[in-house]
């Protein structure tokens, strides 16, 4: 049913992404789908730039690319079916752009439990669901029992 699955991954919260990755592997194995892991890095404020090395963004992209490759190698999928991308910008915008460029027919992403802040500014998952050109599966990240 699905041939290309995009999975946004927050490398700083890999445990949070585990549920989405598990769901993706299950779907990809069943459908023989290609999986694209995506990490979106935020633009750094200009005032911070003077305190960082000139090639800071390049180093961060290289580290993210290596981390995604390692994560992909640990998934129970054929290596030829896994690719990775690193983008810089607002998370929901970059997820939507990568989905278009990759030709994704499914986006699988984790989401935090909604809170008051989410209702006022909107979560990345909510923005992706509203504006995606393809199906979106939102998987709740693991949270503490209530």
Automatic annotation (TrEMBL):
Q: Which SUPFAM superfamilies match?
A: Adenine nucleotide alpha hydrolases-like
Highest taxon above the source species = Bacteria
Listed InterPro entries: Rossmann-like_a/b/a_fold (IPR014729), Universal_stress_UspA (IPR006015), UspA (IPR006016)
Can you give the residue ranges of the UspA domain?
1-140
Pfam families documented for this protein: Usp
Q: Which CDD domains match?
A: USP-like
**Similarity remark:** Belongs to the universal stress protein A family.
Q: What is this protein called?
A: Universal stress family protein
The gene name on file is uspG
């Amino acid at each position: 049913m699905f041939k290309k699955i995009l999975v946004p991954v927050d490398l700083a919260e890999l445990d949070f992404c585990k549920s989405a990755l598990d769901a993706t592997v299950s779907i990809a194995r069943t459908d023989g789908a290609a999986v694209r892991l995506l990490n979106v890095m935020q633009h750094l404020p200009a005032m911070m730039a003077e305190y960082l090395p000139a090639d800071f963004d390049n180093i961060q992209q290289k580290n993210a690319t290596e981390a995604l490759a390692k994560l992909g190698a640990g998934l129970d999928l054929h290596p030829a079916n896994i690719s990775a991308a690193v983008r810089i910008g607002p998370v929901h915008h970059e997820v939507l752009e990568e989905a278009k460029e990759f030709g994704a027919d499914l986006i699988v992403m984790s989401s935090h439990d909604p809170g008051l802040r989410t209702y006022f500014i909107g979560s990345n998952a909510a923005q992706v669901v509203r504006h995606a050109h393809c199906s979106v599966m939102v998987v709740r990240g693991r949270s503490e029992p209530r």
